[in-house]
Design a protein that fits this description.
Layout: E1 2-3, E2 9-10, H1 25-28, H2 38-43, H3 50-53, E3 84-88, E4 101-105, E5 110-119, E6 122-126, E7 135-136, E8 144-149, E9 155-159, H4 176-184, E10 194-198, H5 217-223, H6 229-242, H7 248-257, H8 261-273, H9 279-286, H10 291-300, H11 302-307, H12 310-317, H13 325-335, H14 343-353, H15 358-367, H16 374-379, H17 384-389, H18 398-413, H19 427-443, H20 445-448, E11 455-457, E12 460-463, H21 470-473, H22 476-485, E13 490-491, E14 494-495, H23 507-520, H24 528-537, H25 547-550, E15 556-557, E16 565-568, E17 586-587, E18 597-614, E19 626-631, E20 638-643, E21 650-667, E22 676-677, E23 679-686
Antiparallel strand pairs: 1-2, 3-4, 4-5, 5-6, 5-7, 8-9, 9-10, 11-12, 13-14, 15-23, 16-18, 17-22, 18-21, 18-23, 19-20, 19-21
Helix pairs in contact: 5-6, 6-8, 7-8, 8-10, 9-10, 10-13, 13-14, 13-15, 19-23, 22-24, 23-24
Length: about 675
């Protein structure tokens, strides 16, 4: 985690050296990952180019966890696998590097430098060293893991200088990494860490050492305008920790008349940290000559906007024609935090006026993703974009602007989008899902993607698409066992990397993550006691699972084809149960009655062991009592399960695994409601 002069955070994970740097992190939390398409995430600036992901080591990197799949023919690492220690250089001793982004790749034995430029306010990071790196070493044990700016203004690089850098969960018997460690005795190379300091050639003027802990608060204020970001940040931190509001007048003088924009910016944030910020300070800062100060003032106005402060609204309205796209972006994000009757109309005005700027669209999607802003309805009317873009200063092709907006608008308003929540949640369940979402982002998103749709790098499979995973959406026993012990081998037709085990985590950890993932895909939650039961049942298991070993606990969904034969005595439209569209449905002609049934007949025998019946938004049109039978061709029907006293729009149950080519589901009790099935999923194991 690092930040630039404005406080914008730059995150990284193993395979992504920089992400989430287009807008303040707090606003990403407004989004519901389950209701965002992958293209929307690209439109929101989540991703960087594949070119920046490509690495250029100078020596072979045979100890990459993914093995040969991660390497070029010459043995060098193709792309980031262990991005860490990222840093924005903000010192005063290396002026040519000021504001540059740096990130470590210890597997590749290199440090990447990124030059940040802006286009219409959107940050773009580029590698200025063509097919090379800022720093790369032939030392096999060079393991850069952290970078920082020192009080002397120079750049410091921490080198772990070690044989093994991966966690033990990745170094299991049979893995590529284990064989490399054994052959090169890497376990013997340890306790050799070191720190490098990057300096300029030539004489270096002597600089005073910081003694801020011994300085008075009024002396610290002067450091807020220092040329070295380390001094500015440290002075602000100490002032806020001391809570000494006697410096507020001095801070206001800097805010109003300070010569350095960054000094004014730090003075503004320090006033806020001291809880001494007044609305008049915000208004002064909103008219500052530097966009960074103006944007910060708008963000700090959010408590006033939430209270409906009309003076702040008036000052913010003056920014409608602001020359900085970043100020426009911040205005929309902050107005989304305000009162609907006062702030939202002004947000609509910003969006109408500047819809040709991509980060304005980013802010609108983020801040108002689930809010009924009237301008979104206007955009769907003919002629809106012709009028809005007629006098636009955006250099982008107007058709591209229109198409990007329309894509999101259509996605947002699409008729097939059904709210994921299919029954009311109590407060305990709400907290469970929130914990699970946070744990997923922290633990799983590096491989499976932040939207859980999987991750691939340069065409290579890193983590499964969990939104379509039979292991997750079918029998929950399999999902729990995989999370506890890990998974290896082939999934579908793709060989996966090692899915690391989490057996060391407690039952709540496992239950919360899986519940968040399953609930978002209209499946039941998992309790800690269910996880505990699986631990007992698989207690003797050592090492990762394969799908063959999991068997009936992780069945695959049977994929319907045109060869399937469907039959019912209740109604028509049976094929709509298998079309993948949640708003289409099979519906009985008459209300439910005992003996009403549906049948599906497929050709290849499968051991059926799990089913899910989803009634979509057909409220209360689900059968509460069902009998489930299967049969082989010309064989007798065998009852393998039932659903009694079913509750909710989605009914799911485990079945006695039975080899079959046919299934029949029969209503057992009459009801005044019709019988609707929007989607029927049948899971089994091929034999």
């Amino acid at each position: 985690l690092t930040q630039d002069d404005t406080g914008q955070m730059f995150f990284a994970d193993n395979a992504t050296p920089a992400k989430d740097f287009q807008q303040p992190w707090i606003y990403w939390n407004l989004l519901d990952n389950d209701l965002i398409s992958s293209r929307e995430r690209e439109m929101l600036g989540h991703n960087i180019t594949e070119k920046f992901l490509t690495t250029w080591p100078v020596i072979a990197n045979d100890d990459a966890q993914g093995g040969r799949n991660e390497l070029r023919d010459d043995g060098t690492l193709k792309h980031f696998t262990c991005a860490c220690g990222q840093h924005i250089y903000r010192g005063d001793a290396l002026p040519a590097l000021y504001g540059n982004f740096f990130v470590c790749e210890p597997v590749g034995r290199l440090v990447r430098r990124g030059v940040i430029r802006e286009f219409l306010g959107q940050r773009i990071i580029e590698n200025p060293h063509s097919r090379s790196e800022f720093l790369r070493s032939t030392d096999y044990f060079f393991r850069p893991v952290h970078i920082d700016t020192g009080p002397d203004g120079f750049l410091y690089i921490v080198d772990m200088n070690r044989g093994i850098i991966q966690e033990s969960a990745w170094v299991v018997e049979g893995s590529h990494l284990k064989s490399v460690i054994k052959s090169k005795h890497l376990e013997q190379v340890k306790r050799r860490g070191r720190i490098f300091r990057l300096v300029m050639n030539g004489p270096r003027p002597k600089k005073p050492q910081p003694k801020m802990l011994m300085e008075k608060s009024h002396d610290l204020v002067a450091h807020l305008s220092h040329a070295n970001g380390w001094w500015r940040d440290t002075a602000q931190k100490l002032l806020v920790l001391r809570g000494d509001q006697s410096v507020a007048p001095a801070l206001r003088r800097i805010l109003a008349k300070g010569a350095r924009p960054l000094g004014r910016l730090h003075a503004l944030w320090t006033l806020d940290g001291l809880r001494a910020l007044h609305s008049r300070d915000i208004i002064v800062a909103m008219s500052d000559q530097d966009w960074r100060v103006r944007a910060a003032a708008i963000r700090l106005s959010e408590p006033e906007l939430a209270e409906g402060n009309e003076t702040i609204i008036k000052a913010l309205r003056l920014r409608l024609e602001d020359s900085s796209p970043k100020v426009l972006q911040q205005a929309i994000l902050s107005l989304a935090m305000g009162k609907e009757d006062l702030s939202w109309p002004l947000a609509g005005a910003f969006i109408r006026r500047h819809c040709g700027i991509p980060i304005v669209r980013m802010a609108a999607i983020t801040g108002f993703h689930k809010k009924p802003l009237p301008v979104f309805e206007e955009m769907r009317l003919p002629g809106f974009f012709d009028r809005a873009l007629k006098n636009s200063s955006s250099p982008l092709d107007h058709n591209r602007v229109r198409n990007d907006w329309i894509f999101w608008l259509n996605y947002r308003f699409a008729a097939h989008r059904v709210v994921q929540k299919y029954r009311d949640l109590n407060a305990q369940d709400e907290k469970k899902l929130q914990r699970g979402q946070i744990l997923f982002k922290q633990t799983c998103s590096q491989c499976h993607g932040e939207d859980a749709r999987g991750a691939e790098h340069q065409g290579e499979f890193i983590g499964a698409n969990l939104t379509e995973s039979d292991r997750l959406l079918g029998n929950p026993e399999g999902a729990v066992r995989i999370l506890l012990n890990g998974l290896r081998g082939v999934v579908g037709k793709k060989k996966i990397g090692i899915m690391i085990p989490y057996a060391s985590q407690n039952d709540d950890f496992v239950a919360d993550i899986l519940s968040a993932l399953r609930w978002s895909q209209r499946r039941s939650m998992i309790s800690p006691s269910f996880v505990a039961r699986q631990r007992v049942l698989t207690g003797k298991k050592r090492g990762s699972w394969t799908l063959e070993e999991l068997g009936h606990s992780a069945p695959s969904r049977l994929i319907p084809t045109t060869k399937w034969k469907l039959k019912s005595n209740a109604g028509v439209g049976l094929g709509l149960m298998f079309d993948g569209v949640l708003t289409s449905r099979f519906r009985s002609i008459t209300p439910q009655s005992a003996g009403m049934y549906i049948e599906a007949d497929w050709s290849e025998p499968s051991e059926v062991s799990y089913i899910v019946l989803d009634s979509g938004d057909s409220k209360d049109e689900f059968a509460k009592n069902l009998k489930i039978e299967v049969a082989m061709p010309k064989g007798p029907w065998i009852e393998i399960g039932s659903l009694a006293n079913g509750q909710g729009q989605v009914l799911e149950t485990s079945l006695t695994p039975t080899l079959a080519t046919r299934i029949r589901i029969t209503v057992q009790a009459a009801s005044k409601k019709h019988w609707s099935i929007h989607e029927l999923s049948i899971y089994g194991c091929d034999r």
